[in-house]
Write a structure and sequence with these properties.
Largest sheet: 7 strands, mixed
Helix content: 10-25%
Strand content: 35-45%
Number of helices: 3
Number of strands: 37
Oligomer: single chain
Structural class: mainly beta
């Protein structure tokens, strides 16, 4: 009886777990095959029967292990897409862009090898990266130890003609691959303004990226008729003569603005936002009867020439000046000229003006000629003009002064100038141009303004510049938008 019961139990369990039995049988078969392969088969082998080798199947998966990569590069970061977990780079050797993806396995470091977050890396940074070229997966990124940086630079000179930038006593080259960044987006070189505070990054003697740390906005005066010809002081550094319909480029920030003209005026506060136009109404400032004060100048050398507001003065006796700000220029042969501003605000005052001698005759000659040019109304290039052809129908301002509706022109004055383009309903734009001293006219054509309702964060369009011999579009045909992987 017991045996019959056991058989029935066995049959019952077999029906319930038939699939398990088959699975166990298959597993035992596999284990047996592996064991035979490992230990060697006792069956005789027939060398005449060809054996089928296992075919390698590529399933498109690459195991990304710590430190693994097949390519490396030292590019510039062009864009960081945190939502899509991608970064776009510029390869410096070929000037090509490419995009890599990142995930939790991507390791980020500062230039000293310490771990950092993605928030500590910005567009314009020069980095050392490793990645898998086939899957375009970024495995590591480190702020390049080869790169140098100069941050929060306020005093600089970017010479577009010579492709150089001077910071203090150091001069660096600007390459065709140098990138310009503002608020995380690429801009044109001419979008930079002398009012901007910049940071520079480069390798060896070449600047590879220039980023705007603190940008600029625009200031317009309203109800300023009583103050035209007077002076405006913005903060501690900007002093400008007030002209009709002026539009000034001002670094973003909060400022105390001092308006003065013939003893009238007052102080106001203004906040300038990046790329925005701010209107300051000064119609409520006091307009008083002109007040004057006398200034006695003590000159050294005694024969120096003294100019007040561009007019040669007789400094042998006290000079009567209207209350407010005045420009003073002092010069003499063999001495270094000086230009400064005077504030007259009391009945009488005494001022000492002392010039330093130049060191040699060569400096003397250059200083003298330079001074004469600076105080002459018409410079050597005054008979030539600078033309602004495009876009048409916009207000054009040069160094803050209104010159007309484009197409228009203004007197050619060699040096660096700020061009502001403005039109109601459109985003105001400014460009920094450098005008040469050649005896010929020069023409500039700028990109169309963008309507206010459009996305103003799009990268700026290309600029076209030309001389009178014909227009030449400044493009970089080799820097195409197609993506290409960096160097292996």
């Amino acid at each position: 009886m017991v045996k019959v019961w056991e058989n029935k139990k066995h049959n019952h369990m077999t029906k319930r777990t038939g699939w398990t039995t088959h699975a166990l049988t298959a597993a035992l078969t596999i284990i047996t095959a592996v064991s035979l392969a490992a230990c060697g088969s006792t069956e005789p082998q027939n060398s005449d029967v060809p054996t089928e080798s296992a075919e390698r199947v590529d399933i498109g998966f690459v195991a990304v292990g710590p430190g693994g990569y097949d390519s490396a590069d030292t590019p510039i970061v062009l864009n960081i897409d945190k939502n899509g977990n991608t970064l776009t780079f510029l390869n410096l050797d070929r000037g090509k862009t490419y995009t890599l993806s990142m995930d939790g396995t991507t390791r980020l470091y500062d230039k000293y090898g310490e771990s950092i977050s993605l928030d500590q890396i910005a567009a314009g940074d020069i980095v050392d990266i490793t990645f898998y070229k086939g899957t375009r997966h970024l495995t590591s990124m480190q702020l390049s130890s080869q790169a140098w940086s100069r941050e929060s630079v306020e005093q600089y000179d970017i010479n577009t003609m010579r492709s150089e930038v001077t910071i203090g006593n150091d001069t660096y080259n600007i390459s065709r691959n140098t990138q310009y960044v503002s608020e995380g987006r690429l801009i044109e070189q001419m979008d930079l303004n002398a009012a901007d505070v910049l940071s520079f990054q480069g390798i060896n003697s070449t600047v590879l990226s220039i980023s705007v740390e603190r940008g600029h906005g625009y200031l317009r005066l309203a109800n300023d008729e009583q103050f035209v010809g007077g002076w405006i002081e913005i903060g501690q550094s900007e002093i400008r003569r007030i002209t009709e319909d002026m539009l000034l480029t001002v670094p973003e920030g909060s400022y105390q603005v001092n308006i003065s003209h013939n003893g009238s005026g007052g102080v106001k506060r203004v906040v300038i936002n990046r790329n925005e136009e701010t209107t300051l109404d000064i119609g409520d400032l006091e307009v008083a009867a002109p007040q004057t004060g006398t200034v006695l100048f003590a000159l050294s050398p005694s024969n120096l020439e003294l100019y007040i507001d561009g007019e040669l003065m007789d400094a042998s006796q006290p000079i009567t000046l209207v209350y407010g700000i005045h420009q003073m220029i002092a010069r003499a042969t063999g001495y270094q000229s000086i230009t400064q501003y005077l504030r007259v605000g009391q009945a009488s005052a005494a001022i000492d003006v002392t010039l330093d001698p130049v060191r040699n005759s060569e400096d003397n000659s250059s200083t003298s000629s330079s001074s004469e040019t600076s105080t002459t109304v018409d410079t050597a290039t005054s008979q030539y003009r600078v033309y602004v052809d495009a876009p048409e129908g916009v207000e054009v301002y040069v160094d803050g002064n209104y010159v007309g509706i484009s197409p228009c022109n203004f007197r050619k004055d060699a040096g660096s100038h700020t061009i502001i383009l403005r039109k109601n309903g459109y985003v105001t734009r400014s460009y920094t141009i450098r005008v040469d001293s050649e005896d010929k006219d020069i023409t500039f054509s700028f990109a169309d303004l963008v309507k206010n309702e459009s996305d103003a964060t799009n990268p700026s369009e290309s600029l076209t510049g030309s001389a009178n011999s014909g227009k030449q579009t400044e493009t970089d045909e080799e820097n195409e938008s197609e993506e290409e992987s960096g160097s292996e």
